[in-house]
Design a protein that fits this description.
Layout (H helix, E strand, L loop, with lengths): L15 H26 L7 E4 L6 H11 L6 H5 L23 E4 L5 H16 L2 H9 L4 H14 L3 H16 L7 H7 L36 H8 L8 E6 L2 E5 L2 H17 L13
Antiparallel strand pairs: 1-2, 3-4
Length: about 290
């Protein structure tokens, strides 16, 4: 029986480089089938827009801005506070005033009021936990919530960043002497307004935010303070001042005695009279 010679069959064996080339080649083929149609038929990635929260805004202003930017019914953001997972301290009793940190926040079509509010509160906690603010607060025996409250007054009262440390010193000095703070900003908050016209009747309103009649810090912050105000709250400028009044933009005068302060308030009212405005109290601040 004749046997025909058959050369031995050689089995193909891919090198590592060959296996990789085959793998990526297969992947590219799959990609051509599955990914390309998505890129052709899909929409371009959504470009986020921004919601800017300035320093000194009250919670009511933040709520209105969120509703406006997200095109929601008025009151939607405020209502979301009850269901949003907000990392507020127990002292806040669920009220995020003072913790809606001023910054720029990205918005997309999937953004909800609860997401924004949670991000603002989270950012406020991060700022209050920075080493300078946290250590300074502890040195003054203040909780983070008290720091936020004091900082909110500074934010509302200081005419400039340069004034923040001095305003903070006035507050600390008054607290140390058990003097009412007598801040017009707390009256404005109680009356839901913003003005430099504080009358004698205003200072007699029945409100926990009436710092003319009640001692200590107000029960809650009165706006959203920025990091500069937080820092000033725990690191006030050295001084013995108990009074201040912004006589005109860029001219805030501080004094240690009431007699000196009365002279500054007289200058303030004289300048306002020339502009046709009525005199005001200006006991500790006359912005």
């Amino acid at each position: 029986m004749r046997h025909e010679y058959r050369p031995p069959q050689r089995r193909s064996r891919l090198t590592r480089r060959g296996r990789l080339a085959l793998f990526f080649g297969t992947l590219l083929v799959i990609g051509a089938v599955t990914l390309v149609p998505l890129l052709r038929g899909g929409e371009a990635p959504e470009k986020p827009r921004q919601l800017l929260i300035p320093e000194g805004w009250r919670a009511s202003q933040v709520y209105a801005a969120i509703d406006r930017e997200l095109k929601l019914r008025p009151g939607s953001a405020k209502a979301a506070v009850a269901t949003a997972d907000l990392a507020l301290p127990a002292e806040a009793k669920g009220n995020p005033e003072g913790y809606l940190f001023p910054a720029a926040y990205p918005l997309t079509s999937t953004t909800t009021p609860g997401m924004l509010l949670a991000a603002m509160v989270r950012t406020a906690n991060e700022k209050l936990a920075t080493r300078a603010v946290a250590d300074g607060g502890r040195a003054h025996g203040m909780t983070p919530y008290q720091t936020a409250t004091l900082a909110s007054i500074i934010e509302a009262e200081a005419g400039s960043r340069a004034d923040m440390g001095k305003v903070a010193r006035v507050v600390h000095n008054r607290l140390a002497k058990s003097m009412p703070l007598q801040m017009d900003s707390t009256i404005n908050y109680a009356l839901n307004r913003s003005t430099v016209d504080t009358t004698l009747s205003d200072t007699r309103i029945d409100s926990p935010f009436n710092s003319y009649e009640r001692q200590g810090l107000p029960p809650t912050p009165i706006d959203s303070p920025g990091l500069e105000a937080m820092t000033a709250a725990v690191a006030p400028t050295p001084g013995d001042w108990l009074f201040f009044v912004t006589v005109k933009p860029g001219d805030t005068r501080y004094s240690a005695t009431y007699e000196e302060h009365k002279k500054h308030v007289a200058d303030f009212n004289r300048i306002r009279a020339r502009a046709g405005s009525r005199p005001t109290q200006g006991a500790a601040a006359g912005k």
